[in-house]
Write a structure and sequence with these properties.
The complex is a heterodimer of chains A (117) and B (215). By secondary structure, chain A is an alpha+beta fold. Chain A has 4 helices and 3 strands; from the N terminus they run αβααββα. In chain A, 17% of the residues are buried. A 3-stranded antiparallel β-sheet of chain A has the order 1-3-2. In chain A, β2 and β3 form a beta hairpin. Chain A has a single domain, classed as Arc Repressor Mutant, subunit A. A 4-stranded mixed β-sheet of chain B has the order 1-2-4-3, with helices on both faces. With 215 residues, chain B is an alpha+beta fold. Helices cover 74% and strands 7% of the residues of chain B. The radius of gyration of chain B is 23 Å and the shape is elongated. Chain B folds into 2 domains: 65 residues, no CATH class; 128 residues, Zincin-like (2-Layer Sandwich). In chain B, β3 and β4 form a beta hairpin. The chains are: A alpha+beta (117), B alpha+beta (215). The interface between A and B is medium-sized, with 20 and 16 residues.
Chain lengths: 117, 215
């Protein structure tokens, strides 16, 4: 299960930080990519992209694959979760926590909105 | 009269009692300040102040303990045991942290290049290399960034640290004698060692690449 801890309520709710969002967006579009290419395309520093990729790998959204080019080891990163899947997990996680903490209020709300399981 | 009572007696009857207490309180406050203050310049000033006060206090305490050398020795011995057990355990703690947060595995290709056993690849995209005890860690980001000759220079730098750690007791003796070589000096020695084996050019270009990555 992906850890989706961060909930930002200011402008839009997202399971990803702005930089994570940019990196995932790029990976979903272009597939397996090298750190230097990602950094160049989204116009961010190498070190911040690398640190963010480490976090995405740890959270299970991205995986790393080793490639051999001229005997040199290179690494490419690719997403292992689709945008739909990430959004589904995030919404479920938020709702689970709402139900855990305010069960009755949440159920009552869905009844009022006319949504029944 | 036991050693502690004797020391307290010596200290309270000594004409040095008031200045000593004053210095000790100052030292305690500046040490606490050093830990609590967030501002780095403030931290540095409090660190200096704590050091100066500790230095002033040392002879005062020493003379007040002149009737009871055994307590002085006990405190020193206690410090030695504590310092050595923390130093012995720290690498294991850090290893556990790395395993949990990144993960690592042994890498035979690098072991061959370095001519060493126990070389690990750390699963991190940031270029990093360091030594824990006799184990060398090189991150995937480092493999990705450097060419083989530059990688060899980095590995040789780490090999110096492995050699330096080969005698853990001798290496840690500085915490007992209070005569440490600065870490900076050790890094320069490690660089000189790496230059001799892998070549100055390889080391310089590795350093340049790493610096560029983090800039």
């Amino acid at each position: 299960m992906v850890k989706v801890e961060r909930v930002e309520f200011d402008e839009k709710i997202s399971p990803l930080s702005p930089l994570e969002e940019k990196i995932m967006e790029f990976l979903w579009k272009h597939g397996p990519s090298h750190v230097a290419l990602i950094a160049e395309e989204i116009d961010a520093s190498l070190s911040s992209v690398a640190a963010t990729l480490d976090r995405l790998v740890k959270n299970g959204l991205v995986e790393r694959k080793q490639e051999k080019i001229d005997g040199r080891r290179k690494f490419v990163f690719y997403p292992v979760v689709s945008r739909n899947e990430l959004e589904r997990r995030f919404v479920e996680n938020v709702l689970d926590r709402l139900v855990e903490n305010f069960g009755e209020v949440v159920v009552e709300y869905f009844h009022r909105k006319g949504i029944r399981k | 009269m036991n050693a502690l009572e004797c020391t307290v007696y010596c200290l309270t009857t000594s004409p040095l009692f008031l200045p000593s207490a004053f210095v000790l309180i100052g030292f305690t406050f500046s040490s606490a300040g050093y830990i609590l203050v967030k501002n780095s310049i403030g931290k540095l000033r409090l660190y200096w102040l704590a050091n100066i006060l500790a230095l002033v206090n040392a002879p005062i305490l020493y003379f007040s303990m002149s009737c009871s050398m055994s307590l002085f020795l006990k405190i020193y011995f206690g410090y030695a045991v504590l310092a050595f057990s923390i130093l012995a355990l720290a690498p294991f703690g850090y290893r556990y942290y790395l395993k949990r947060n990144y993960g690592f595995e042994r890498d035979q290709e690098l072991e061959k290049l370095a001519g060493m056993e126990n070389v690990f690849v750390l699963n991190s995209a940031l270029p990093r290399a360091f030594t824990l005890g006799k184990d060398v860690f090189v991150s995937a980001g480092m493999l990705d960034l450097l060419e083989e000759r530059e990688l060899k220079a980095v590995l040789m730098h780490e090999r110096f640290h492995v050699i330096q750690n080969r005698t853990p007791f001798l290496n840690r003796l500085k915490y007992l004698t209070f005569l440490p070589i600065s870490q900076n000096r050790i890094e320069i020695m490690a660089d000189e060692y790496a230059e001799k084996i892998a070549g100055k050019e390889a080391l310089e270009s590795a350093k340049r690449k790493i610096e560029e990555f983090y800039s």
